[in-house]
Every structure is written in C-alpha cells, then in structure tokens.
Amino acid sequence: MSQIDVWHYSGRRNPATGVLISRDRPTIVFLTVCTLRRSATLARQICHDALVEAWTEANAWLVGAYVIMPDHMHLFCAPKNEEIAIERWIAFWKRQFRRKVGPAAPRFQSRGFHHRLRRDENYHQKWEYVRANPCRAGLVKNAEEWEYQGVLNHLPWYGDAHPSGSSARQSLAPPA
C-alpha cells in the first residue's frame, strides 16, 4: 500500500504534524514548501536573499542544504531548540520572509511536507534528488549552475545532531 493510500484510508489529508526527535540518532528533516497555487515566483534574487535572512533569524531549527525552485523549495533542517515544533518554525520564517520582501512577496501553501530521514542513505538519495531538480525542470544543464541554492549549516548524519554553523552561504557539497 502506498503512502497516499495509507493517508486515504486513515482519513488524513496531510501528513502527521510534528517531528519525532530521537536521542540515539540525528534528527534531520527533508522539507518541501510550495507557493500558493504553485505560482512560479520564488526563483528570484530578492526571494533567495529574504529566505536566507529569514532562516538565519528563525534559528530554532537550522537549515542545511537547500534549493529554491520557481514554485517550491526543498531543504534539510535539524532542530536546535527541541521545544519549537517544526510547524511553528515554518510559520515564523514565512512571516519573516513576507516582511522582508513586502506586499509583492510570493505566498505559500498553508502547510509544507516534511519527512524525517531514517538512514544516511535517505539523506544522500534526497540530496541527489534536490540537487538535480533544476536540471530535471530544464532550467540549467548542470546542478552547479542553479543560483538559488546553498548550504547554511552543516547537518551531519553522525556526530553532533545540532550543529552550529555559519549563516553565510557555503559552497554546495553533498551532506556528510
């Protein structure tokens, strides 16, 4: 039975809220957030800069690698403050983003989709998927050419699950 079938039979329209935080392994979440009605308005420098600023200010969760597409974004994140639920964190940085861009800011769908990674292999598979998104969409020939991507914090699979990192954009490399 597919995940969609499980949601259908359980009566859910959206994935469960919250993220299970484990003490025995890292908590790294793969998050996708789409624009309202999938409007293709995100892939602009003003939006990129405002998102980076908003994520830096919304420091209850740390953003690792991310890719901003015209109508959605993918990112990896990890809790820095376990008391702040991921949904509350998302709502906060969306508000910060709107304040920074102004009235013309793209609107987002009310919910994002998040999935806690279970294994290191999932992390690398998701990263390759995210990295190749601009190529699959025909926006660039090589993933490195896409300008609306970056890494704000290193989110290691093993070791410190709550890394401190620089808020400056770093060169992209697959998650370690």
Would you kindly provide a brief summary of this structure?
The chain has 176 residues and is of the alpha+beta class. The protein has helices spanning 3-10, 45-57, 86-101, 120-136, and strands at 29-34, 61-68, 72-79, 113-116, 149-151.
Q: Can you say what the CATH homologous superfamily is?
A: Transposase IS200-like
Q: Averaging pLDDT over every residue, what do you get?
A: 79
Euclidean distance between termini CA atoms: 32 Å
- The unreliable regions are 1-10, 159-176
What's the number of helices? Answer: 4
The proportion of residues forming helix, as a percent range, comes to 25-40%
- Which structural category do the helix and sheet elements fall into? alpha+beta
Principal-axis shape equals globular
Beta-strand content estimate:
15-25%
| Rg, alpha carbons | 16 Å
CATH architecture term:
2-Layer Sandwich
Number of domains: 1
Strand order of the largest sheet: 4-1-3-2-5
Q: Kindly report the CATH topology.
A: Alpha-Beta Plaits
Number of strands: 5
Order of helices and strands: HEHEEHEHE
CATH class: Alpha Beta
Sketch the major β-sheet: 5 strands, antiparallel
SSE layout and pairing:
Elements: H1 3-10, E1 29-34, H2 45-57, E2 61-68, E3 72-79, H3 86-101, E4 113-116, H4 120-136, E5 149-151
Antiparallel strand pairs: 1-3, 1-4, 2-3, 2-5
Helix pairs in contact: 2-3
Question: Main traits of this protein?
Answer:
single chain, 176 residues, alpha+beta, five-stranded antiparallel beta sheet, 31% helix, disordered C terminus
Please describe what this structure looks like.
It is built from 4 helices and 5 strands. By secondary structure, it is an alpha+beta fold. The protein has one domain (about 5-150): Alpha-Beta Plaits (2-Layer Sandwich). A hairpin with a 3-residue loop joins strand 2 (about 60-70) and strand 3 (about 70-80). The protein is globular, with a radius of gyration of 16 Å.
